[in-house]
Amino acid sequence: MKKNYLLMCGLLATMCANAQVWDGTSAAWTKGDGTASSPYQIENGQNLAYLAEQVRAGETFEGKHFILASDIDMGASENQKFTPIGFFDEYVDTENGNMLVDESKYFKGTFDGNYKTIDNVDIYFVDTQNEVGGTGLFACITDGAVVKNLTIGANSKVEGSFATGAIVGATTGGRIENCMNSASLSIPDGAMGTGGIVGALYGGTISGCVNTADYKGANNVGGIVGFVDRNGVVENCYNTGDVSFSGFYAGGIVGYLSVGTCTSSYNIGSVLNDFSGSAVVGTTDNTAVIENCYYLTLPDGATDENNGTAAKTESEMKEDAFLTALNGDKSVWVADAQNINNGFPILSWQADVTSSVSKTELKDVEAYVDGNSLYVQAEDGSEVTVVDMAGHVVAKTTANGQAINLAGKGVYIVAVSNGTSSKSFKVAVK
């Protein structure tokens, strides 16, 4: 089932209109002192690559704060691959009494995405020989770390093996909140622990996160997180992407919930494998807790027999009663008044971000199609980004009165920005 999240795609396109393209090099940030009041500013791909280099060299940045100052285009179209921030290497030493050894290079600071988007990024780390994992923008985080308010765009991909997620590969603590993934994931057969947000949650919390990407994993595959252990917490998350897998255990939210909790979350995507797939949580251990979780009933779709899950129709999930049930005594979820998620409940931060964009709307701008030609009427020099229904950027230019050719039929999102204000349009080629 293909999901319709037009306004969110329009928002992403608007944000990406101001993105800076990474050239594959690294450079230290020049603004901020790393405090909460004056965080280090990540202004471009060079700064992001420098952060990755420093953490992989052993610098944890414990107690330090970072903020994404602008949207970043990571240049994947130029075959630029991004090595994750950090390195995850936790293993059992079978020659020394099965002692757990952790030689990981963790990020321990706070990274605030500032509701910006990192797009056109190819995150790559694969080590199948040693079964070393940790593939994501961050390879791994631990106690004290926070990654928040960040989107990985739809023109991106993550190539990993063990413990792969778009935001964080593996956690042994820390918190991931208000993050969204639209990137595809490329996972080999035999891999363990794959999720749209986090690959393996060995402790820590995932809160208020969204996955919209369709992808295929192998074993322990989840729309949000692949594997949860050590009292990891998944709360207030939803998945719209279709999850397929070649091995064992997959769920729309969590693939394998061992020791941990999954609460107040829902899945409206398909889980594609009849053998061991469930609509919310693929499989659990006796100590796992699932509460207040839901899934959309789909023709021939996966069900979920775990306690704490319930099937809902589309109409039921769009009613006020469902919103009330999701929220409980909190105010995390809101109605989708802006059609960000095709009428299904959204997280309050999504509504706030969309509202903030509309407040800075460009004036005297129009976009229309004539046949396959798109015309944008705006001040000369305004940046124009066109995104198709799959979230792919099909055109990126400046407003100059010239027609933009749209080769295929369908609906497109047109984002126009002059650097300080923006406006988005939905157009159709018939």
Structure characterization notes:
The chain has 430 residues and is mainly beta. It has 2 domains: 20-70 and 83-312, Pectate Lyase C-like (3 Solenoid), CATH 2.160.20.110; 366-429, Immunoglobulin-like. The chain contains 5 helices and 46 strands. The protein has a 17-stranded parallel β-sheet that branches. A hairpin with a 4-residue loop joins strand 42 and strand 43 (393-398). Residues 1-18 have low confidence and may be disordered.
Give the SSE layout.
Blueprint: H1 6-16, E1 20-21, E2 40-42, H2 45-56, E3 65-68, E4 72-73, E5 81-82, E6 90-93, E7 99-102, E8 110-119, E9 122-124, E10 138-141, E11 146-152, E12 157-159, E13 164-165, E14 168-171, E15 175-177, E16 180-181, E17 184-186, E18 192-195, E19 198-202, E20 205-207, E21 210-211, E22 215-217, E23 219-222, E24 225-229, E25 232-235, E26 238-239, E27 243-245, E28 250-251, E29 254-257, E30 260-263, E31 266-267, E32 271-272, E33 277-278, E34 281-284, E35 289-291, E36 293-296, E37 309-312, H3 314-317, H4 320-327, E38 333-334, E39 346-347, H5 348-358, E40 366-370, E41 373-377, E42 383-388, E43 393-398, E44 404-405, E45 410-417, E46 422-429
